[in-house]
Here is the input.
Amino acid sequence: MSKPSIQLAAAPADKRRHTGVDAIVWDRIALAALLALLVYAGTVHAYRSWRMAFWFDEVATVIVTSQGSVHGIWRALEHGVDMQPPLFFTIELLPRALFRDPHLAYRVPSILGFLVVPAALFFFVKQRCGLAPALIAAVFPFLTKVHLVYATEARPYTLVLACTALALLLWQSADQPGRLALLAFVLATAMSLHYYAAFGVVPLVVGEAVRTVRLRKVRGLVWAAFVCACIPLPVFLPLASQARQFYGTHFWARPGVLSFAGAYDALVPLNAGWGAGLALALALGMAIMAVRPSVDSWRKTASVPLEEVVAVVALIGIPLLAYTAASIAHTGMTARYTLPCVLGISIAIAYLASAGGPAVARGTLALLVSMVMFQEAHFWMSHRAEPTASSQTYAELRILEGLKRAAGVEDLPVVVCNGIEYLPMAYYSGAKTDKLLALIDYENALAFTGSDSVDRALTALAQYIPLNVEQFSTVVSEKRKLLLYSIGDQRFDWLPAGLRKNGYVVSPIATEKGRTLYRAEMRQESLQ
Here is the structure.
């Protein structure tokens, strides 16, 4: 019986892989290109990290890590300060001690995690298709949010992606000595970094099941590695259960009908469903190749086992799987939890380009490299006017101060309407924290926005960092005059509407760059 596989065309260099010197030269050129990509990625991500201020979730990372020990980190997580397993924050302790600039220090693990991804994709695809398709797979992540956002974010997402990419590479060569122990370790590490890392394991499980059926041979040690990967889950289950209980059933990121399609648009990134369309086209292309592998022009080239095809398609389908599971379990879900789908998209583009022949593979590689160069040139030309985060300045604080000067109310405290923006503003304001105020109210937040997650998070964070947080009901009962700062984000900015409902007149007194400073006063009839 013939072995089911996809026949893929290889690059010209690979047709000469047995000619000695030529093969060595082409390998070195490809490896040099990969190394150049990684050096550039490390440089640009370190530079971006130095310039970028922390946002809400990253401030939470800083607060949890600053507890300084595993015990302290565990206690903070028990109190709902964050919703990740403790391993990520434990890892953060080392760069925090090594680097002076916190903006770089807390992002070093994410930068290193990103560097693993192109390298793992390169060697995974090279094994089946050769050098040009391998470089295609390595280059494509630079066009996604993995490079544009998450590689410079002090969160565990690129570390989970790196573990998934390494697991894919180790699974491909699982028959080699020592690989299974590493596979179990890498998968267990992913599970210890984020509770939803399990979605990245599913494609490997599905692929291995297909291999078992195809060859009628069970690789017991591979299945044992999958089982070992789940060991961390019961260890961290109490933390996960406590976090879910604290944030209740009204988590801000609730999966909706077809909301998984938006995950592709968010990660690729494309708009208006183009991301989902690309993913669907790639999955269909891989499926067609799986059932019709015997095209004449591909016969003399390397083949891809059916199980790897299935695993790649399953990787592309992770957003659909994740959003379906979250809907059934009534848990939160957002696009960044489904990052491993980028691996599947990258590999599928490389495989399909290879199937089109050497000219298509080279053309695809040239196109992707051109797109990356244009994208990065735009970044270097446009970023220079922006101040660095290392100067401890924060854009929202500068805008707010300008609005207060324009309105002649410089000495008055201000209520920041959006809790997502309040936390980094408070973090960067230092000794001026008392000039900023957040009002929280679970019921009003739920009524106006459908979620009380931000209010609950601020309640937990206030136990570990000086925050000027007050109850909305207290301020209303005292009928205080207020200044409100709004960034115009309607998802969490419910205070103007909430105050109007409770008898306040809310009037704009200054605006800049979409930001508005309001004066809020109780109506005269309400004062009587």
The chain has 27 helices and eight strands. Confidence is low (pLDDT under 50) at residues 9-18, 295-302. The first strand starts at residue 5 and ends at 7. Strands lie at 5-7, 303-305, 414-416, 436-440, 469-471, 482-486, 504-512, 515-522.
